[in-house]
Description:
The protein is an alpha/beta fold. The protein has helices at residues 12-20, 25-34, 41-57, 66-74, 88-94, 107-114, 124-135, 143-147, 162-172, 190-202, 217-230, 245-258, 277-286, 303-315, 334-342, 361-368, 385-395, 419-429, 449-461, 473-479, 487-496, 503-512, 522-532; strands at 77-80, 99-102, 152-154, 180-182, 208-210, 236-238, 264-266, 292-294, 321-323, 349-351, 375-377, 406-414, 432-438, 484-485, 514-516, 519-521. Residues 1-41, 57-102 are annotated as: Disordered.
Amino acid sequence: MVYIKEHKSLDREDDDDQHEHPHDEAEDSSSYSSNPRPHSLLEYLLEETLSQVFSSANFQDTDQPSEIKSESNESLKTVITPQDSEFSDELQSENGSSINIPEDAGLRPGSWILFPQLPGDRDEGVIKFIELTKELNIPPLGQIPQMLNTNQIDLKSYGLDPRTMKIICEALNSNTTVKILNFQDNWLTADACYHLNDLLINNNIITEINLSGCRIGEAGSKELETGISSAESLQYLNVSRCDLGDEGLLYLSKGVYCSPSLKKVNFSNNNLSENCASTLQKMLIQTDNLDELNLSWNNLNSSKFWETFIIGLTANETLKYLIVNWNGLDGECVPYLTEYLSSDPNLLRLDLRDNSFTSVEKIAEALINNTKLEIVELGNNPVQAKEVFIFIQTLTRLTSTSRLKMIDLENIWADKEVLPLLDDLKTRLGLDVTLGGILSNYEIIGPDPRKIFLKRANFEAMKPKKKKLKRNFGQFVMSLQDLIISREAFKKSIKSAKIKLSESLITEISKAFEIGDDAIDLSILKQFYLKEYPEATELPPLIVPRKKRKIKKKSKKIK
């Protein structure tokens, strides 16, 4: 319950009486609610507003004794005097009343559920980043302080200043949340790579680095060598489109095979040539963790390169996924590939798409001896339909020991002869062979010629202008018996029914319903005609008109 104290007069004596008689508060409250006497518009509006608040706050059961009500509400009362109001001067001069209202109903704490307070303390790395930005007078990057509290720094195509790279690396030295760094398509200088190298040495939680398109070159690769080999948690390194060249690869390859955790490396589109064969060979032999290697979009198509590179591939025991698409590989590389596949390595997936293979029969023979490979991708190679048939026919020799699940021949077409072979591989081994399409795998479906001939017969039978010469071809068909007759007999029956059809049409109808040499099944003709023209069953029987005999008039002889 809410208590409101209101004086009946503005004299100071009434104020003294109020303090001397506190038990009159209930009566004063009822008197106030029943006979409010505002002395100004502001006071009236204030009292009306407070009365609405009090009425909504008075939610207790009225059947309980008043003593219990007063005790339960005693702790909720707050005395608000005119001095606490923004209209204190005016109210104090006109009214000396004090008003008891309850405390806040709980909305204030609840509001923080919807609008939680921001943490007062900032991460040490965030503070360091802001301080260094101000110290070096670098334009502020508003997104980075927020990213420092997540698991990823994503600054793809951001146009990073080398000085900004230094600040980011300094802020990340003691960071414990960021695990992924994405600097794709930023031109990083050797100095930026130097600071990134320090970060990899000092930070032990970064797992992925994407430097694709950063064009770090040989100088940047040299700076990153130590950091890559020292990073204890780094598992993925993407340095595609970085203009490494054979010399830049030399530095990074040392970091790869010395790394205790690196599993995936992308060296694609880095102008690598046959001179890097020994570098890749050494990296594959000495690494203990690498399971995915991407060498696409380079110039690794010479037999000299593969002669050296295949030694490292065969000696490696951890590689599971090899990507060498867009390298111009052709028949010159096939002997080395087949040697590698026949050795039954631990490789699970091989990507040879978008090369220059014209024959893949030898690759299929090597797959027969392989028991671990699961996916082979050969799409977009200039393989002809005959070679595809030989390739798939060779694959039918696969046994249950093979683990092949899919062979991708995207954009490579074959003839219809391969369809049974594909069904056999799918049914027997569960092997899916994806083709670009099947040549001539279609059937010409046009209008039924029998419909055309019968429709033409209906027209020609009713074509004569003289009514007595018009005939209904349907009546003729319904009059036929279920017999097998010769073409000549069929032709005579049409003429005997006085139906005028062209000789060519009669010949075509005879061929359309012919069941053998010179044998026409009239029952099939009737069934087909009734299917197309079911109303023919209601036609009256055919009546062939007879010719009227001409009576010769005897001429009178003139005597």
